[in-house]
Amino acid sequence: MEKNILSIFIFIFGYLLGSVFGPSKVQEKTSEPITGIFEGPDELSIGSNILTPLTEKPIRSPSREVYIGPTVDYTKKLSDSNIPNTYNQDLNTVLEEAYQKDSIHAYYINRYADLAIKEHNLYRFPASVKLAQFLIEGGYKEAAPQGSRLVTEGSNPFGIKYFGDNKPERISNWSDLAFPNQYVSAKDDCKSSCKFVKFRGIWHAFRYHSIFMVGTESMPSHYTKYVSTGDWKNWLNALEKGGYATSEEYRRLLYNVITDYKLYLLDKH
Length: 269
Hints:
Structural class: mainly alpha
Number of strands: 4
Mean pLDDT: 74
Strand content: 5-15%
């Protein structure tokens, strides 16, 4: 009888210990990877939560080094899948074209296409042009798959310069998007070195870029006076006439990326 009572007491004591210190409590403290479209400021900076191509599950990277992901045969995925949604068809066409030419570009297009389209719908700046600028300005290439220093140190894939307190008046939520009084120094067209904005994350850079390019209804950007039709070719002309970049080759570079990868297919979504 005493043994039975002792056994019951040990069982109850063990159960109580397990409920306090058991695996369930530990699991509650473990953060799960974020999935889906990046919704806003809660989106993690590049290198924290990395989405692998297409339908693969996200993985968490322990460092800021970008995970490029496994080799994916986009052609096979396209032919073997019956995708009724035209967006998925168009995205796969874009990825197929991009992957044949530059797998790193294909990875980033796949990762940020949804975000570029969402910004397009909000601000009417073409997703195709935004993604092309993102790839070119961000310096994504085989030698630097995580992007340039502006990306790794400042989450600034669009090369937005920092001018201290002389920020555009139409950017009312500056401190929500970027770190005030912080910048990344890098060589460019300045006399010594240029200062570039240090954004809080990639999403924040996308949103700043949208407002910077289009402006607001009461305070439109100077680029909009060169915009008539609003399609991607029209915006390339506006960027050139508005002096977005000092390089005379900038428009041609953007045009080649958009046409080579057929990024214009994403604009209709």
